[in-house]
């Protein structure tokens, strides 16, 4: 199936609280690490987790009125139309009309001496972003800055210091023309007001070592003391991290269905109405983890 660039949008996710999308496999001293891309080591959220979170939030939004059973039945049909229906006896099932990519990292927050924290991006992520933007029908021809390992290029204004400490790493300011990139970032993540471009290797080092790691224990109900052997360490993508998801809208995928623009627009408007402000992703919902603020970016809309 071919996707129309007019029916593709970028969903930008801003971390209001820390996010734990677990990989299910312990690495070193961290018992519960987060998901990472195999080839880069950058944090991410797999597409299955993204779609599951979107569907859960979508269902809750449209079934929030228990006093109207007819509305709930209609909401379930809409849910199946958008996200797909499981095959059951006597029912063939069908795929959903919404397709999503992995949630890819865009900006990563780290501590700094010039502000409580700054956001980092690297040339490799900017290059990937340019490629993904082509799915939206947008071609950016800006020159990607290439700072050396001991320097950083400021994408945003307001930071006057020439020497900056990023966690335990010192870099100096490097001047380059970044007006177009600054404009793009203002549209994607307006909350991020202190963005620096750092060398790819520095970025990789920081996203692998500067995530949040918290200890967890289990308490015995009868004694109120720690249960022996329950100590474990959980990794979290810190709050204020920014990720993005490519979303593809199509018509219904039921058997013999035709591609109708009005159906595509119904699905798009239904999804964006339900996912208009926030969504919860990852685990530990009852601990307030994974609350993400949503911003839709669609130059063709």
What does it look like?
It is globular and about 65 Å long. The protein contains six helices and 16 strands. The chain folds into two domains: 1-21 and 47-84 and 94-101 and 238-301; 106-208, no CATH class. Helix 1 runs antiparallel to helix 2. With 301 residues, the protein is of the alpha+beta class. Strands 1, 2, 5, 6, 7, 8, 9, 10, 11, 14, 15 and 16 form a twelve-stranded mixed sheet that branches. The chain is 26% helix and 25% strand. It has helices at 47-62, 69-83, 123-134, 179-188, 200-209, 261-274; strands at residues 8-15, 44-45, 84-85, 94-95, 98-100, 103-111, 117-121, 151-154, 163-166, 169-173, 195-198, 212-216, 232-236, 242-249, 278-280, 291-297.
Please name the defining characteristics of this protein.
6 helices, single chain, alpha+beta, two-stranded antiparallel ribbon, twelve-stranded mixed β-sheet
What's the domain count?
2
Q: What form results from the Cα inertia axes?
A: globular
Classify the secondary structure makeup into a structural class.
alpha+beta
Give the uncertain stretches in residue-range form.
none
Order of helices and strands: EEHHEEEEEHEEEHEHEEEHEE
Instruction: Give a count of the beta strands, DSSP E runs of length 2 or more.
Output: 16
Count of alpha and pi helical runs:
6
Query: What is the mean predicted local confidence, pLDDT?
Result: 86
End-to-end C-alpha gap: 21 Å
Helix content: 25-40%
For the largest beta-sheet, the strand count, sense and barrel status come to:
12 strands, mixed
* Rg, alpha carbons: 21 Å
Proportion of residues in extended strands: 25-35%
């Amino acid at each position: 199936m071919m996707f129309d660039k007019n029916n593709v949008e970028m969903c930008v996710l801003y971390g209001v609280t820390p996010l734990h999308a677990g990989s299910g496999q312990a690495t070193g001293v961290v018992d519960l690490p987060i998901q990472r891309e195999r080839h880069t080591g950058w944090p991410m959220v797999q597409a299955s987790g993204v779609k599951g979170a979107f569907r859960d939030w979508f269902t809750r939004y449209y079934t929030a009125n228990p006093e109207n059973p007819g509305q709930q039945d209609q909401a379930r049909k809409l849910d199946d139309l958008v996200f797909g229906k499981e095959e059951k006896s006597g029912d063939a099932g069908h795929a959903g009309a919404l397709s999503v990519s992995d949630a890819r990292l865009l900006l990563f927050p780290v501590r700094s001496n010039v502000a409580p924290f700054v956001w980092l991006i690297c040339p490799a992520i900017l290059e990937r972003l340019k490629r993904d933007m082509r799915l939206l029908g947008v071609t950016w021809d800006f020159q990607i800055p290439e700072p050396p390992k001991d320097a950083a290029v400021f994408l945003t204004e307001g930071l006057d210091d020439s020497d900056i400490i990023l966690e335990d790493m010192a870099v100096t300011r490097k001047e380059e023309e970044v007006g177009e990139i600054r404009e793009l970032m203002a549209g994607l993540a307006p909350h991020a007001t202190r963005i620096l471009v750092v060398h790819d290797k520095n970025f990789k080092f920081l996203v692998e070592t500067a995530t949040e790691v918290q200890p967890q224990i289990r308490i015995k109900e009868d004694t109120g003391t720690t249960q022996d052997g329950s100590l474990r360490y959980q990794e979290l993508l810190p709050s204020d991290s920014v990720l993005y998801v490519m979303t593809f809208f199509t018509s219904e995928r039921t058997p013999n269905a035709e591609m109708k623009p009005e159906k595509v627009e119904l699905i798009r408007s239904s999804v964006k109405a339900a996912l208009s402000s926030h969504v919860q992703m990852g685990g530990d919902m009852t601990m307030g983890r994974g609350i993400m603020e949503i911003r839709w970016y669609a130059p063709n809309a």
